[in-house]
């Protein structure tokens, strides 16, 4: 039996990238994983099939995490299917363009806030009654090292990820008494499918001052996600945990 046996976990944006890696790791630890996706059903099915092929438990759930009605119905469907919900991992994201400050518009900021503030909020509100009733819940937000680095041309994304960290700390204070923890994982640059075509010079530049002298991989995130989702992390809340080879401290 794994450390997550009997737990029901929702991973948003789980059809590819970090989301799919986390979903597979959580299932390996015994969790039932709800693989959320919006557009790529084929990729989501591939994640589900791989999990189930290795004797894990999962199903796919298609809904837009930025749409309040869709989230409400998606969570209701999940609850009806499994009876409860223990863990929500806020991983879904949209496009992340680099935009010079002079060209940034308020809409560019809203586009990021929708994923990193609105989506986590409406997901938490939908899940909270069930987590309170069972006196157990885990909210795991996927942040970014950019909050500490402050990448140029990226203010819209940096600000939204910083807001996500603020939510993490406020929620941890408010709902901890119900046995619900809220933490944030701040990965470094971990190349996944959407980074295909990135120039080798960009990778070389990133590695220049990286203490571990290597690029991160999805496997570097998996163990921490499973730990934070488990009973073992019950006294850890409101924390930002960097997983970036020492890029930030």
Question: Poorly predicted ranges (pLDDT <50, ≥5 residues)?
Answer: none
**Basic shape:** globular
- Per CATH, the class reads Alpha Beta
Q: Biggest sheet: strands, sense, closure?
A: 7 strands, parallel
Strand arrangement within the widest β-sheet reads 3-2-1-4-5-6-7
Number of domains: 1
Straight-line distance between termini: 35 Å
How much is the radius of gyration in Å?
Answer: 17 Å
* Number of beta-strand segments: 7
What is the string of helix and strand elements?
Answer: EHEHEHEHEHHEHHE
Q: How many distinct helices?
A: 8
Helix content: 40-55%
CATH level-two architecture = 3-Layer(aba) Sandwich
Structural class: alpha/beta
Q: Provide mean pLDDT, rounded.
A: 96
What CATH calls the topology is Rossmann fold
CATH H-level superfamily title: NAD(P)-binding Rossmann-like Domain
Portion in strands: 15-25%
Structural descriptors:
249 residues, alpha/beta, Rossmann fold
What do you see in this structure?
With about 250 residues, the chain is α/β, with parallel strands linked by helices. The protein has a single domain (about 10-245), classed as NAD(P)-binding Rossmann-like Domain (Rossmann fold, 3-Layer(aba) Sandwich). About 45% of the residues lie in helices and about 15% in strands. The chain is built from 8 helices and 7 strands; from the N terminus they run E-H-E-H-E-H-E-H-E-H-H-E-H-H-E. It has helices spanning about 15-30, 40-55, 70-80, 105-135, 145-150, 155-175, 200-205, 220-230, and strands spanning about 10, 30-35, 55-60, 85-90, 135-140, 180-185, 240-245. The chain has a 7-stranded parallel beta sheet with strand order 3-2-1-4-5-6-7, sandwiched between helices. The longest helix has 29 residues, at about 105-135.
